[in-house]
Specification:
The chain has about 425 residues and is α/β, with parallel strands linked by helices. It has 14 helices and 20 strands. The chain binds cytidine-5'-triphosphate (CTP).
């Protein structure tokens, strides 16, 4: 919660300014007081009226307004806040901040700040990648400015790449982290599976898949950031162990299931691993050799345990909230609904992994959250925008925190 915290939100000129309206709403919901500074170019994108209605405060915009200065000098405006947030932070404003220019109210307030400053950059990908912006960002980070985003995605200008402003949920998570508010999963035990499994054929060969573990690891890290005690059961991946998380490395599906069962009880289970559905019935104890004249080896496959389904089916120690993932290449909605019912989990995050999407092994994804309603037959669907895997993780962790807070006992019952 951000009860009693005072946020000074600086809204600069960018198409992403509309997202700042949602950010204000979320901040107010959490009990924060929000005061807005709108730059002249920001006012081309959102009106002082909408900012004022949502923040329930006066909007500050003109450095030289004598009335404003009499009521609230720009130094006090800056000093009264617990945190200054610039969202969207344009290339121009970032450049001014990096050089200490103070030529309007926003930059003056920023230069007068004695509190932490958080920026949510938003700009065209070329501008973001420009050496000058890179230099300015490095300068600001060295000065202690905190940054959230930008995300990779489609831009208003029609290009694709890094530069989209972080989603309000992610900016909110960054604000909570900056203010030392761990944000809602304190005391919650989370179990997360991640990565592929490797099923041995012989001592050197295995059946595996292309899962990178990026999404599962990011989820474990996001839950830990919100204060959860996290056990991450990971198949073989190149991802480093997330900080503050107990990571158990396994190879096979059966080892993954054992490790998950040993990690119970847990309040939430999130199965993001791409578990191999089959294993070789009898892995050869010695390396299989090519022997001329002999027929090629035949692999007999048997079904692996379904970790998500077995966690969902547990009687006495079923986690309150069990979340699965569905990677589909066709009929996403129908397959996701079927999978939610078949696996017995409460939520299912589904995405399209057909090769054109670049989802497998990539850094961004478009997710659809299928939520089983309490009556057991209805399902609601939330379509999320294309987000980085880190942003998906932050959004999911925040969504979980809200669900656990608003329901006691099993989340679905
Ligand atoms: N899963 C699991 N254990 C398995 C297989 C899958 O825990 N043996 C979990 C995954 O972690 C994911 C969800 O189940 O959360 C969906 O997995 P997926 O492989 O997409 O679905 P399948 O059940 O294999 O269905 P299908 O092959 O028909 O798509």
């Amino acid at each position: 919660m951000l009860q009693g915290k005072r946020i000074l939100l600086i809204v600069a000129g960018g198409i992403a300014a509309y997202k700042s309206l949602d950010l204000i709403r979320r901040l107010k919901e959490r009990g924060a007081a929000v005061r807005c500074v709108l730059t002249a170019s920001g006012a081309e994108f959102v009106t002082p009226l909408s900012l004022g209605a949502l923040s329930e405060d006066k909007i500050y915009g003109d450095l030289f307004s004598l009335t404003d200065e009499a009521e609230m000098g720009h130094i006090r405006l800056s000093r009264d806040a617990d945190l200054l947030v610039v969202a969207p932070a344009t290339a121009d404003l970032i450049a001014k901040m990096a050089s200490g220019i103070a030529d309007d109210l926003a930059t003056t307030v920023l230069l007068a700040a004695d509190k932490k400053v958080l920026i949510a950059p938003a700009m065209n990908v070329r501008m973001w990648e420009h050496v000058a912006t890179r230099r300015n960002i490095a300068r600001l980070e060295a000065d202690g400015v905190i940054r959230v985003g930008p995300e990779i995605g489609a831009m208003a200008c029609g290009e694709f790449g890094a530069g989209r402003m972080a989603e309000p949920a992610d900016i909110l998570a960054a604000i909570e982290a900056a203010l030392g508010d761990t944000g809602g999963l304190e005391g919650v035990r989370a179990l997360v599976t991640s990565g592929p499994t490797y099923e041995p054929i012989d001592p050197v060969r295995f059946i595996g898949n292309r899962s990178s573990g990026k999404q599962g690891h990011a989820i474990a890290a996001a839950c830990a950031r919100l204060g959860a005690g996290v056990t991450l059961v990971s198949g073989p991946t190149a991802e480093p162990d997330p900080p503050g998380v107990t990571t158990i490395r396994v190879e096979t599906a059966r080892q993954m299931l054992d490790a998950c069962e040993s990690a119970l009880p847990a309040d939430i289970a999130i199965c993001a691993a791409a578990v191999a559905d089959w294993r070789v019935a009898e892995a050869a104890p010695e390396k299989l050799k090519k022997v001329s004249g002999k027929s090629e080896p035949k692999l007999e496959l048997v079904r692996n345990p379904d970790i998500l389904a077995s966690l969902s089916a547990r009687k006495n120690d079923r986690p309150r909230l069990v979340i699965g993932f569905a990677a589909e290449t066709e009929k996403l909605e129908q397959n996701a609904r079927d999978k939610l019912a078949r696996k017995g989990c409460d939520w299912l995050l589904a995405n399209d992994v057909s090769p054109a999407t670049g989802a497998f092994g990539g850094d961004a994804n478009t997710m659809h959250l299928f939520v089983a309603e309490p009556n057991g037959s209805d399902v609601t669907v939330e379509h999320w925008p294309r987000l980085s895997k880190a942003a998906i993780a932050a959004r999911l962790a925040e969504r979980i925190a809200v669900a656990l807070k608003t329901k006691s006992g099993p989340v679905r019952a």
